Amino acid sequence: MNVHEYQAKAILRKFGVPVPDGHVCYNGASAREWAKRLGEGPWVVKAQIHAGGRGKGGGVKLARTSSEVQMIARDMLGMTLRTHQTGPEGKVVHRVLVENGCNIANELYVSLLVDRGSSRVTVMASTEGGMDIEEVAANTPEKIITEAVDPLVGLTPFQCRKIAFSLGLKGKLTNKAVKVLSNLYTTFIACDCSLLEINPLVVTAEGDLLALDAKFGFDDNALFRHLQIGDMRDFDEEDPNEIEASQHDLSYISLNGNIGCLVNGAGLAMATMDIIKHYGGDPANFLDVGGGATIERVTEAFKIILSDKNVKGILVNIFGGIMKCDVIATGVIEAARQVGIQVPLVVRLEGTNVELGKKLLAESGLNIVAADGMADGAQKIVAAVAAAA
Ligand code: ADP
Ligand code: MG
């Protein structure tokens, strides 16, 4: 799960990481009032969408007067912001953050993430903070330093100083950096984060450190421990099909192709997508119904796949271990009755109650292509989609 910048900053503030004072606003008039309340200006008006690159896309603007804040906020709210992270369709701005502008002397980059290679939380830092960290990573990776954290000991003051030195910080700034880094680590652990990125972390002309931008990724499996973070979820920012799926405890991932995949288990999902690609097709999504799905859940799952306009064919690939093939078959038939299937459907079933499952499908009157094995299923759906195009 992700949150907006203003929510991320509220969390950071709680953990003692310095951030500019600011407030979220939903209309121009309140943006103007909040600006006056925040101080003398200048202010920065920032579009709140779950994507970076806003600065370059026109989603971060400086205002010198409170009327200017109002005008900028009014224009920004409702606009479709396109950045290199939103894709060409962009994202509609529903909220803006009005915050105090600061005098930037230097922009740094700091992030914490779980490095799967070393199985450790790792701090990444760079002097090249600001808007182009992806380019730094691609062209001058030596400018990014990493420091792995021992989970038993935590991020030590020694490590923090080492990072601070490599960022070129001196004197009082070193101590400030040690505090910021160690508070960021505390935040990361306390909130069960998968990612915490501050870009930029700025040194101000007054000699302070300030987190000017913040991005969090939270481990969804730990969200039950963080009700307040869960409440920050903004459904406007998420794929409606993924929301619908999560409400039925289904894992749904939307992709760019045109073949919908109903599978059980993450491994089978990966293999199914690989084999579709192998035979020249492109998955539109995959929906993992998991182990013990009920008929109702399978029905919902199938409805979600059918509601995706990009889906030009569906491959059901189920290996019934815990999951029973007759339950899958009944769900498919039920969903088809409720919403109708206009696209080719290939079904490959194997495992528990497979004969019963196949019989149900055969007697359903639905136009289903049965497949023997994964390769056969993939070839058949790729061919059917190509023929229909
Ligand atoms: P994004 O990463 O989406 O482009 P940022 O929040 O990082 O958005 O803002 C982009 C740039 O705007 C920053 O690198 C910084 O130079 C400037 N900026 C952002 N917030 C402020 C602020 N409060 N005061 C001064 N400059 C800011
Ligand atoms: Mg940024």
Automatic annotation (TrEMBL):
<dbReference type="Pfam" id="PF08442">
    <property type="entry name" value="ATP-grasp_2"/>
</dbReference>
<keyword id="KW-0436">Ligase</keyword>
<keyword id="KW-0067">ATP-binding</keyword>
<dbReference type="InterPro" id="IPR011761">
    <property type="entry name" value="ATP-grasp"/>
</dbReference>
<dbReference type="Pfam" id="PF00549">
    <property type="entry name" value="Ligase_CoA"/>
</dbReference>
<feature type="binding site">
    <location>
        <begin position="321"/>
        <end position="323"/>
    </location>
    <ligand>
        <name>substrate</name>
    </ligand>
</feature>
<comment type="pathway">
    <text>Carbohydrate metabolism; tricarboxylic acid cycle; succinate from succinyl-CoA (ligase route): step 1/1.</text>
</comment>
<dbReference type="GO" id="GO:0004775">
    <property type="term" value="F:succinate-CoA ligase (ADP-forming) activity"/>
</dbReference>
<dbReference type="InterPro" id="IPR005811">
    <property type="entry name" value="SUCC_ACL_C"/>
</dbReference>
<feature type="binding site">
    <location>
        <position position="199"/>
    </location>
    <ligand>
        <name>Mg(2+)</name>
    </ligand>
</feature>
<keyword id="KW-0816">Tricarboxylic acid cycle</keyword>
<feature type="binding site">
    <location>
        <position position="99"/>
    </location>
    <ligand>
        <name>ATP</name>
    </ligand>
</feature>
<protein>
    <recommendedName>
        <fullName>Succinate--CoA ligase [ADP-forming] subunit beta</fullName>
        <ecNumber>6.2.1.5</ecNumber>
    </recommendedName>
</protein>
<comment type="similarity">
    <text>Belongs to the succinate/malate CoA ligase beta subunit family.</text>
</comment>
<keyword id="KW-0460">Magnesium</keyword>
<feature type="binding site">
    <location>
        <position position="107"/>
    </location>
    <ligand>
        <name>ATP</name>
    </ligand>
</feature>
<comment type="function">
    <text>Succinyl-CoA synthetase functions in the citric acid cycle (TCA), coupling the hydrolysis of succinyl-CoA to the synthesis of either ATP or GTP and thus represents the only step of substrate-level phosphorylation in the TCA. The beta subunit provides nucleotide specificity of the enzyme and binds the substrate succinate, while the binding sites for coenzyme A and phosphate are found in the alpha subunit.</text>
</comment>
<feature type="binding site">
    <location>
        <position position="102"/>
    </location>
    <ligand>
        <name>ATP</name>
    </ligand>
</feature>
<keyword id="KW-0547">Nucleotide-binding</keyword>
<feature type="binding site">
    <location>
        <position position="213"/>
    </location>
    <ligand>
        <name>Mg(2+)</name>
    </ligand>
</feature>
<dbReference type="InterPro" id="IPR017866">
    <property type="entry name" value="Succ-CoA_synthase_bsu_CS"/>
</dbReference>
<feature type="domain" description="ATP-grasp">
    <location>
        <begin position="9"/>
        <end position="229"/>
    </location>
</feature>
<keyword id="KW-0479">Metal-binding</keyword>
<dbReference type="InterPro" id="IPR013650">
    <property type="entry name" value="ATP-grasp_succ-CoA_synth-type"/>
</dbReference>
<feature type="binding site">
    <location>
        <begin position="53"/>
        <end position="55"/>
    </location>
    <ligand>
        <name>ATP</name>
    </ligand>
</feature>
<feature type="binding site">
    <location>
        <position position="264"/>
    </location>
    <ligand>
        <name>substrate</name>
    </ligand>
</feature>
<feature type="binding site">
    <location>
        <position position="46"/>
    </location>
    <ligand>
        <name>ATP</name>
    </ligand>
</feature>
<dbReference type="InterPro" id="IPR005809">
    <property type="entry name" value="Succ_CoA_ligase-like_bsu"/>
</dbReference>
<comment type="subunit">
    <text>Heterotetramer of two alpha and two beta subunits.</text>
</comment>
